[in-house]
Amino acid sequence: MKAITFAAGCLAASSALAQDAVLTVYAGDYIVSEWGPGPRIEEMFEARCNCDLQFRPGDLLPRLLLEGARTEADVVFGLNTDVTKQARESGLFAPHGVDLAPLTLPIDWQDDTFLPYNYGHTAFVYNSDRLAEPPQSFQALLDAPDDLKIVLQDPRSSISGLALVLWVQAVFGEEAEAAWAKLAPKILTVTRGWSESYGLFTEGEADMVLSYTTSPAYHIIAEDDRSKKAAIFPEGHYLMVELAAKVASTDQPELAQQFMEFLLTPEFQEMIATGNWSFPAALPRESWPEGFRELDLPETVLFYSEDEAAALRDESIEAWRRALSQ
Amino acid sequence: MSLRALPAAVAALAVAGLVLGPVAAVLWRAGDWGRLGPGDWQALRFTLWQALLSAAVSTVLAVPLARALARRRFAGRGLLVALLGAPFILPTLVAVLGLVAVFGQNGVLNGALRAAGLPTLSIYGLHGVVLAHVFFNLPLATRLLLQGWHAIPAERFRLAASLGLSPWALFRTLEAPMLTRIAPGAFAVIFVICLSSFAVALTLGGGPRATTVELAIYQAVRFDFDLGRAALLSVVQLGLALAAGLVALRLGAGAGFGAGLDRVLPRWDARGGWSRGLDALWIGLAALFLLLPLALVAARGLPGLLLLDAGIWQAASHSLSVALASTLLCLIWALALASRWGEVVGLAGIAVSPLVLGTGLFLILQPLVNPLSLALPVTTLVNALMALPFALRILRPQAQAARQDYGRLAQALGLTPLAWLRLVLLPRLRRPLGFAAGLTAALSIGDLGVIALFANPDRATLPLQVYRLMGSYQMDAATGAALLLLVLSFGAFWLFDRGGRMGADA
Questions:
Q1: A127 and A200 both lie in a single domain
Q2: Which residue of chain A comes nearest to B226, CA vs CA?
Q3: What is the pLDDT of residues B59-111, one digit of tens each?
């Protein structure tokens, strides 16, 4: 397998020398693209490791589960909190061994396998030029007139859609299905993934879109546009943390370890905010880029542990499906 | 087995192996069949219903449109016929954005309704799904029927005119028999495409009511990693598609017209002002419905073109080389399989879930090689497989007619198979071959198919780049890349299609 990695490395248009050791990182597709953080991560890490970091984009967890212990991956980058149970049970990951003291997450994090590198919260993003008076709470959103249109993502095909049904579950508990029924007439449509939803929102199709508290930072920093805002609800917002993990069968344990340590360094953390348009997981707020510091943050953060999320998942998706199929 | 049947058998085995092999690999890995969940039956009902409606509306609307195009000659007709093919080859993501620009809350239509003080319309719901599927498939149905009209020998119309047949009698004796032969196949192929609809149905369907089987497969593979359920669902999908194919085969039986001289002559039956006006109306409405969303995609993408960088052009060149290779492969495959039962076998290519296909191929290849190193060959193969049903639908009627009409003569002359191909079959099939090649190339450029598991950062294709751009907030650059995709798809389609029709119209 080493030989194949090596051969692929020779063929790939890479700046690294062929004799360097190769660190293979499986990552989400959006991370690896030239507009994602991948190229910068590669550059920064290669400068310190004397190695060749190679990203393999695509379906992260399905691919790893298909490959099992034969995988070439040394590190997996871009897992999400709501699917860690399945990942952990595969037994494919090794402890990360990184000191968690620098973490600045809004929740306590003690996991020895999955290491957070950035986070955000689910939120409804709106255009303040178009929607001058957004709902002030989740309840107010349910009670809003039905001509307020929102676009969502499907919890069966999208990680942000899954976070949304867990968010509704956390806020409304037993009343979740009733809450969905009240929301239903306001839902313009439900899309496969975040990109389609956000595209419809920027086309002016809907008043609000299910996105993240960090989305406005992109518009502020990249476009100098302050009209896109996240509506902050006092009931709280559901936390989404992105994670990396070391693969147990790695043939580059030292490099993999070095990569894991690298994720919590200030250098990486300062880059990831604008690299992945998320809050850094180990950087105090005063060190965030300017556009991030001015964002409204929720006072209450909602979060289910992986066991809770796994137990509630099917039930919450069914409640969503039943209420919206009426 | 005779020498002549050998290529057909090999081609059919290749299809069956490529479809059933991956499904079996997924099933083998899963260990047992999964169970269908509570939402799956609802999804199955919705899938069938929307596919039936979409195929029916597309085929029915295509009849007057194809008839109008078949009997009118006007400046720009060739370009219009080519342009009408464009929606079918659009990547779904781009097409949905185009439709939303016209029919959406903020679209042109609702803007006009608002200005006129009328209530606005919503595109989201079952009708939106059907609208989108008609947008995609009306052009395909029209082209297939148009081919049928062209295949009626001009001598028959001349004879009808000299006998003084009324337009209605002419329709009954010449056009209706052609339609009963061609339309069921067009219906079936569209029905099968719509069976595996996923992103369109979800985005425009308005919510979980519009869940399709393909979404359930996606969920099973990517979220639950429940491969048994994915295999079960894809077998259900395959079964439905093959059933549709068999029904169409039965309905579409019937004799051809015999050989003519393959010329298009003026139609004496369509000279009245009334029929002229009606034809013009059909053509005008269809052009507006099909071309306006494309025009808006183009207009919005123009500024975005400036934002594109080197990565896009590299992706575009990968897409093009994959497209050319798939086209060649698909045409050879289709020529070998061009018979009635071959067409049913070919339907499996679009009936199998791309996700299950990709997962199965990954499982099969993984012990042998690094699947990533085969990203482009696998994409080529799968694109050819998925375009095969269309190529067959286009080629089969005329290939069979050529065999019926000239087979005995060729036998009497003792033509070798190669000479038969070169002297008789290929020249007869020039027009459909061009059309099939254009469609295959364009579909391949726009396809996202199995790429997800085989995504290689250095071998990205253009549709993947569009998704990556959108996933990174680069909506403007994404519209630019979408325009590039549209231009390339359509360019490839036009070149091949034009090549096939050149000189054939004279």
A1: yes
A2: A62
A3: 999 999 999 998 888 888 888 888 877 787 777 777 888 898 899 988 999 99
The total of other beta-carbon atoms located within 10 Å of residue A3's CB is 8
Tell whether A305 lies on the interface with B, counting CB pairs under 8 A.
Answer: no
Residue of A57, A189, A199 with shortest CB distance to B204: A189
Amino acid at B1: M
| Residue from A15, A54, A63, A212 to probe the interface with B (highest B Cβ count within 10 Å) | A63
Query: Residue B450 has what DSSP assignment?
Result: G
Predicted TM-score of the model (pTM): 0.86
- Residues of chain B with Cβ-Cβ distance to A196 below 8 Å are 93, 96, 199, 203, 470
- Whether residues A25 and A59 share a domain: the answer is yes
Q: How far is A277 from chain B (nearest CA, A)?
A: 9
Closest residue in B to A86 (Cα–Cα): B224
- What CATH number does the domain containing A151 carry? 3.40.190.10
Listing DSSP states for B18-78 in one string gives: HHHHHHHHHHHHH-S-----HHHHHHHHHHHHHHHHHHHHHHHHHHHHHHHHHH---TTHH
B93: tokens are 């993501």
Q: Is B31 at the interface with chain A, CB within 8 A?
A: no
Residues A267 and A299 both lie in one domain: no
Domain that holds residue A316: 121-239+295-325
Q: How far apart are CA B334 and CA B391, in angstroms?
A: 6
Interface touch B452/A58, C-beta < 8 Å: yes
In chain B, which residue's Cα lies nearest the Cα of A147?
A: B105
Q: Are A176 and A299 in the same domain?
A: yes
Reported as a single tens digit per residue, the pLDDT across A250-303 is 999 999 999 999 999 999 999 999 999 999 999 999 999 999 999 999 999 999
Asked whether residue A145 falls in the same domain as residue A247, the answer is: no
B42 and A CB contact within 8 Å = yes
Per-residue pLDDT reduced to its tens digit, B231-260: 999 999 889 888 888 887 777 655 445 444
Nearest CA in chain B to A148: B105
Measuring CA to CA, which residue among A225, A221, A326 is closest to residue A277?
Answer: A221
A196·B363 Cβ contact <8 A: no
Question: To the nearest whole angstrom, how far is the Cα of A99 from the nearest Cα of chain B?
Answer: 31
Under 8 Å between Cβ of B425 and B373: no
Whether the predicted pLDDT of B378 surpasses 70: yes
Class (C level, CATH) for B5-501: mainly alpha
